[in-house]
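Appendix B, example 12.
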Amino acid sequence: MLKFIVIDENSRVPKYQQIVDSIIHNISIGNLTIDQKIPSINLLSEEFYLSRDTVEKAYNILKERNIISSIRGKGYYITRTKLISKVNILFLVNKLSSYKMRTYNSFIDSIGANSHTDLHIYHCDESLFLNLLDKNKSAYDYYVIMPHFKTDDLKHVSFTDDVIKAIKKIPLDKLVVLDNIKLDVEGEVVEIYQDFENDIYTALKEGLPKIKKYEKLILVYPDKSVYPYPRRILHGFRKFCVEFNLDFEILDRVYEDIILKKGDLFITIEESDLVNLVKQIREDEFLLGKEIGIISYNDTPLKDLLGITVISTDFKMMGETAASMILNKKKGKVKVDFNFIDRASI
């Protein structure tokens, strides 16, 4: 084991860091494996004529990063071997949806092979989110988070006091906030976001020439959902309808046997509502895109295939931008494109 530790007396790198780098390097090339015992602090200090404090500092860094663990009376052991890269990233997503995964996949494609990213889904659950951060504190070089949470009555909140406290423990140079930036983090961090209220307003305004041919706009906004949506979507929708003097209604779901009328234009958010609506339009023999229109929120490959008009964030851009800012060590806020994509359903 000792032959894997390299200490260069002439190097300007602190000796504790040389120990850390040696162990990580040997894990990455397979010399050290999970559950393998490493030398004790006393043995390492004696072998390389180092102070005990120097070795202890190195081991504490490795413990904080969950690379090694100690068992009382037995010693230190390797606990993590996924260190084939220089940059280790924790990626926290609030839900497992196709568009969230598009952001994650574009991030992975762009960040390159010189990194390792662990993906965790916290299901908008504050407790699970806090537990994941606490469990992995100091273990990663970057923490990429999408902050969306639910209250006990299934309402959307961007943060809680405990969430803010936990995030403030992350060094600013390691923090990347995606999608929702209502955290109001102080200091220079990476923030890549969509503006829910103004995005829906601007996208609908872009589609106004086609929207105006319909007599009534109906937004299907799930008031209570396992994965709740920001109420800023509602505000932007109302703002659009009022400004252009359009008749509108807000429903919490697509009901069975919903009353459909020629001239209705529906805006759906959840996939299940879109499916139920298309099914009932067909059963009632209305012409989609002629007599009744549909706009869906957030694009997916299936919606593209079926010709469903969408208003959508560029989730691919979100992931690519996050990766680029990490690689280039840039800070600041970037607004992601939000588009009206005209297809056959309107």
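The chain has three domains: 2-78, 87-194+315-336, 197-312. The chain has a mean pLDDT of 93.
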